[in-house]
# Entry
Amino acid sequence: MIRVVLPAHLRSLAHVNGEVRLDVDGPVTQRAVLDALEAGFPMLVGTLRDQATKQRRPFVRFYACEEDLSHESMDAPLPDAVATGTEPYLVIGAMAGG
Amino acid sequence: MTGVRVLVGTRKGAFVLTSDGTRERWDVSGPHFPGWEIYHIAGSPAEPNRLYASQSSGWFGQLIQRSDDGGKSWEPKGNQFAYDGEPGTHQWYDGTPHPWEFARVWHLEPSLSDPDTVYAGVEDAALFRSTDGAQTWQELSGLRQHGSGPSWQPGAGGMCLHTILLDPSDPARIYAAISAAGAFRSDDSGTTWRPINQGLQSEGIPDPDAEVGHCVHRIAMHPSRPEVLFMQKHWDVMRSDDAGENWHEISGNLPTDFGFPIAVHAHEPDTVYVVPITSDSHHFVMDGKLRVYRSRTGGNEWEALTAGLPQQDCYVNVLRDAMAVDSLDSCGLYVGTSGGQVYASSDAGDNWAPIVRDLPPVLSVEVQTLA
# Structure
């Protein structure tokens, strides 16, 4: 079970409170987590990554275990703590005013 | 019982304002989609409870929301706006080629007859159409690819397709306008397009009367006389009497002819409204006074409408999609400001009162007249 924390705007859009919990089949990578997230919450498609290229949107960041994973390979294994649900995978809107 | 529903898009959410036919007391609902930019909300003329909203964010991109109950509840629909084929380049601000990149939907124009058909004008400029209630979108790429696209350049707000007019007398005829490319017309339901900018003069481009490159801010028509078009250009208020083939200036006695919105009275095809602002470098009204100007002669002769509007220390703007008219017997007029006010007149502009005063900056105002 993977725990995902969404920013407030996307929690509203997905109609969720608190963390999202996902089951991921196979290796737990960022791509697998995002695929499962979008499958469970189709309204989030396009809000985190481009629908065609699957590239991360510029103002979206991905953190876990106090590390910025935004520029890591989407197919690299996530830390065991994320894969086991001990630590959440954090989706962050880049810090900015407005 | 007749009434009106005013659909307000703001920098931080959407608001739905409703009243009965007297337009004296208003119910305000919202914010819907709080914190998101709502560039535009529009209702289907064929099914008034069908609304479409453009919801966007610099962080999380574009969403399209649809309501089937007049704005009480909403559901996200399709948000994939993929350009047809290899998008190529347009001009950047410095004249260099810049790849076509989707940014947001500026304007939604529901079909006059089919609730499931809706057009979307987007930045970078292109026209999309959905025929399944906004589930999927297809580009009408004949516009972007008709030939002049590589020479189009962005206006200050981005290279946006902001105006879509559907001719009620000819379902195959569509008008579109782009900042800063100009006006375009299709006579075959959006398959092929051509520029219609003859008569426009713009000082900010190398050739002032070029075929394209004009910063058209808004075009309006009256449904009973769709071959007559009124245009607020960057500078200049213009009129065409031949479906855009030729334009002539009707700025007349306006104190400044720079502005964004333009609208036509619901029952008087020669009564036109604009909201002049100071200049291209001063995007606020002149002399601290919010004045809507009305011409009852189809242009050239304009009168200031001020009763009930702030006449001192006012420095707001009214954006291109932020003025609308209702079609009750006594035509109502609505303007939304960058200061978050929505002013309404129930007597064609003679007298005004605020419906709301303290919304986020208003991006768009549309009105539905309800039976």
Notes: Residues 50 and 57 of chain A are 6 Å apart (CA to CA). The first strand of chain A starts at residue 2 and ends at 5.
